[in-house]
């Protein structure tokens, strides 16, 4: 078993009108929970890591653990570079075995965003690596960066058409009202805009910032072309809350195998719910 690109996975989801859940992982335990749960539910799944995750856990460790997880669970797995910005960093990680990349140039002016992304696509497609890019910008906590909601802006559907044609990307991340991290107010998604983007663009669309968004809104997004749903914060909260509770009930606990287990169980519940929400169970 080896790590695969997300191209076919996302095209299958687009044809079948469901979405692939993409979970941000950080270590052995998060990878185990996500992969074992997806395997039990026969769901395709994407494991995502931001640059700071690879710095924290180590590229070689993450690639090796994901490859082993794919093999042990007999599940073709995609390890995806989430919010990467540097071509040299992407090249290095592709050469280490990663086959799915997000190049995030959404902070750059339109023409520079296109040039940057087109360069990455040119490199990645030579290695059969799929590429996602973002047009528009989400607010909230993005890896180590806080993007103020004033700096966020929504995806323009006609610009999206030009962007996809000129970059050659395989999937497009859209900004339609979701944000990374915790929501301070009730989130609202601009479904009219999403429907228009879907009319203009024929590649799979990606929803970032899916934690804290209702199941109903996620399902409606999927019906309008979202084929990949990114989840990070909901997993972190479930894990941390369960570990904190265990430690408060067992103040003398010091064995990680004991206090991490309730965190893994809480995370498993979230992964199951997101797979059901994406309607990806049984789609292997
Ligand atoms: P959340 O942390 O809001 O779930 O966002 C995850 C994400 O979009 C990763 O790219």
TrEMBL record:
Dihydroxyacetone phosphate binds at residues 181, 209-211, 230-233. Zn(2+) 2 binds at residues 104, 134. GO terms for biological process: carbohydrate metabolic process; D-tagatose 6-phosphate catabolic process. Keywords: Lyase, Metal-binding, Zinc. The active site is at residue 82. Binds 2 Zn(2+) ions per subunit. One is catalytic and the other provides a structural contribution. PROSITE patterns: ALDOLASE_CLASS_II_2. Pfam families: F_bP_aldolase (PF01116). Pathway: Carbohydrate metabolism; D-tagatose 6-phosphate degradation; D-glyceraldehyde 3-phosphate and glycerone phosphate from D-tagatose 6-phosphate: step 2/2. Its cofactor is Zn(2+). Signal peptide: none annotated. GO terms for molecular function: tagatose-bisphosphate aldolase activity; zinc ion binding. Zn(2+) 1 binds at residues 83, 180, 208. GO terms for cellular component: cytosol. It is an enzyme of class 4 (lyase). Its EC number is 4.1.2.40. This is tagatose-bisphosphate aldolase. It comes from Arsenophonus nasoniae (son-killer infecting Nasonia vitripennis). The gene is agaY.
């Amino acid at each position: 078993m080896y790590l695969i690109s997300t191209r076919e996975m996302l095209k299958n989801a687009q044809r079948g009108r469901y979405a692939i859940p993409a979970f941000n992982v950080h270590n052995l335990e998060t990878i185990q929970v996500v992969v074992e749960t997806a395997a039990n539910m026969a769901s395709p799944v994407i494991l995502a890591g931001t640059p700071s995750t690879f710095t924290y856990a180590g590229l070689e460790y993450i690639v090796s653990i994901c490859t082993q997880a794919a093999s042990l669970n007999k599940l073709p797995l995609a390890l995806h570079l989430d919010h990467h910005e540097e071509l040299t960093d992407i090249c290095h990680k592709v050469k280490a075995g990663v086959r799915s990349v997000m190049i995030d140039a959404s902070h750059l002016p339109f023409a520079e965003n296109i040039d940057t992304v087109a360069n990455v696509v040119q490199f990645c497609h030579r290695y059969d690596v799929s590429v996602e890019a973002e047009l528009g910008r989400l607010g909230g906590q993005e890896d180590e960066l806080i993007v103020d909601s004033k700096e966020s802006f929504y995806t323009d559907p006609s610009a999206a058409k030009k962007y996809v044609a000129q970059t050659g990307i395989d999937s497009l991340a859209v900004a339609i009202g979701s944000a990374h991290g915790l929501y301070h107010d009730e989130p609202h998604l601009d479904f009219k805009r999403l429907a228009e983007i879907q009319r203009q663009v024929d590649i799979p669309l990606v929803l970032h910032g899916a934690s804290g968004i209702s199941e109903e809104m996620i399902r409606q997004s999927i019906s309008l072309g979202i084929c990949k749903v990114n989840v990070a914060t909901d997993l972190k909260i479930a894990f941390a809350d369960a570990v904190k509770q265990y430690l408060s009930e067992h103040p003398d606990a010091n064995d990680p195998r004991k206090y991490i287990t309730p965190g893994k169980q809480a995370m498993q519940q979230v992964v199951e719910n997101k797979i059901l929400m994406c309607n990806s169970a049984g789609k292997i």
